[in-house]
Amino acid sequence: MKVVIFEDELYAREQLKRNLQRLKPDYEIIYESDSLVEAINYFNSVPEVDLAFMDIELADGNCFDIFERVNVPCPIIFTTAYSDFALKAFRTDSVDYILKPVTESALLMAINKFELRKGRIESTEKKSEIKRILCTRGDNYSALDINDIAWLQSEDKYVVAITNDGVRHLTSSNNLASLSESLNAFDFFQLSRNCTVSFRAIKRVSKYFRGRLSITLSAGPVNEKVLVSALRRESFLNWYASL
């Protein structure tokens, strides 16, 4: 595991490193700093990192400014003397919120939560990724490569796949939700009850009335507009920005 630490108290940072190295000697601390600006610059470099430990108050500002200015690509364990920010912390991709002084038992519990969650995500991703979808035409079957699909539409009792060239293919599935769950979540997103889209097919994302989004899809000569509800808006934008 590659780990980064953002902590402005030198003693607290050294203690955290000692405890971490004792509990998890296979964890590699690849970066550490006490600075908000350095954290922003670091995450802007798109690093390969598995976990971040982060204090709330850094030497030059509040750590939540980081999340407003850059995408943090990993889960976070907050280590802080302030209990007031717990709710705000859990609106980020946080694993745990440990109050100082950080005890070894509290640190181990947080790490165990992180590893359990990471294991579940990796297991889900391995199970979910399929490479082809079965399609039908008359009495014949064919296998459609996932990379050729622009979006999937639910129509009556059927699911139709529109490929990147704009051609429609009738799939053997009759449930868009279950089919969407089996797709790679990094490449596909279910915009609505009736439409799941590949990132490659998104031509335009626009604001719409009452907090909704209007998504323009394009595949060959075929164009489609889909509305994303206010409830799905945040999760869609997070997915869209993370690719």
Note the total helix count: 7
What is the succession of H and E elements? EHEHEEEHEHEHEEEEEHEEEEEH
CATH-derived architecture of the largest domain: 3-Layer(aba) Sandwich
Q: Report the β-strand fraction as a percent range.
A: 35-45%
Counting structural domains, the number is: 2
Distance between the termini: 22 Å
CATH topology of the largest domain: Rossmann fold
Average of per-residue pLDDT values: 89
The number of E-state strands comes to 17
Helix content: 25-40%
The level 1 CATH classification of the largest domain is: Alpha Beta
The global form is elongated
Commentary on this structure:
This protein is of the alpha+beta class. The chain folds into two domains: 2-127, Rossmann fold (3-Layer(aba) Sandwich); 132-242, Beta Barrel (OB fold (Dihydrolipoamide Acetyltransferase, E2P)). The protein is built from seven helices and 17 strands. The protein has helices at residues 10-23, 36-44, 64-69, 86-89, 104-128, 176-181, 230-242; strands at 2-6, 28-33, 51-54, 57-58, 61-62, 76-80, 94-99, 132-137, 140-145, 149-155, 158-163, 168-171, 188-192, 195-198, 202-207, 213-219, 222-228. Strands 9-8-12-11-10-14-13 form a seven-stranded antiparallel beta sheet. Strands 2-1-3-6-7 form a five-stranded parallel beta sheet, with helices on both faces. A three-stranded antiparallel beta sheet has the order 15-16-17. 25% of the residues are buried. The model has no long low-confidence stretch (mean pLDDT 89).
